[in-house]
């Protein structure tokens, strides 16, 4: 009788391991490719393209590094929730008046439109948008013309 109990326990443990591995396969962002940071003089549209490539590659460090301090936690959250971004297209930036954004008047501010096909990780959608074709936008700022562009906001679709 003891042997049968141990056999059932082992079977239950094995089933538990299979369940955990299966759940991880559907919820963990596999890939972990490293995306190179753009040079400081890179334009705002290229910064957005690199950010989206980092999200797609699950390179959360690069995604957060392309964000302003106020946006870095959002970048990390998205990086952990996105399964993939396909058919990424980034448009030209449009200059904005810094006073519209509450940023210092000496800041350069630009909005950059983007479209992509979004696929969330299983059970990870934040509810902000459905999967599939998506039009989205990003606001970037820099403190001086020689400073790098950094993402400060998103959802400007």
Evaluate the radius of gyration: 21 Å
Secondary-structure arrangement, i.e. CATH architecture of the largest domain: Roll
**CA-based shape:** globular
**Count of β-strands:** 5
**Helix segment tally:** 5
What is the CA-CA span between the terminal residues? 65 Å
Outline the low-pLDDT stretches: 1-5, 13-29
How would you summarize the topology of this molecule?
Layout: H1 2-27, H2 44-57, H3 60-65, H4 72-81, E1 82-90, E2 94-96, H5 98-101, E3 108-120, E4 132-142, E5 150-154
Antiparallel strand pairs: 1-3, 2-3, 3-4, 4-5
Provide key terms for this protein.
single chain; 157 residues; alpha+beta; Nuclear Transport Factor 2, Chain: A; 2 domains; 5 helices; 5 strands; disordered N terminus
Can you describe what's shown?
- This protein is of the alpha+beta class.
- The chain folds into 2 domains: 1-30; 31-154, Nuclear Transport Factor 2, Chain: A.
- It is 38% helix and 26% strand.
- It has 5 helices and 5 strands, in the order H-H-H-H-E-E-H-E-E-E.
- Strands 1, 2, 3, 4 and 5 form a 5-stranded antiparallel beta sheet that branches.
- The longest helix has 26 residues, at 2-27.
- The radius of gyration is 21 Å and the shape is globular.
- 25% of the residues are buried.
- Mean pLDDT is 81; it is low at 1-5 and 13-29.
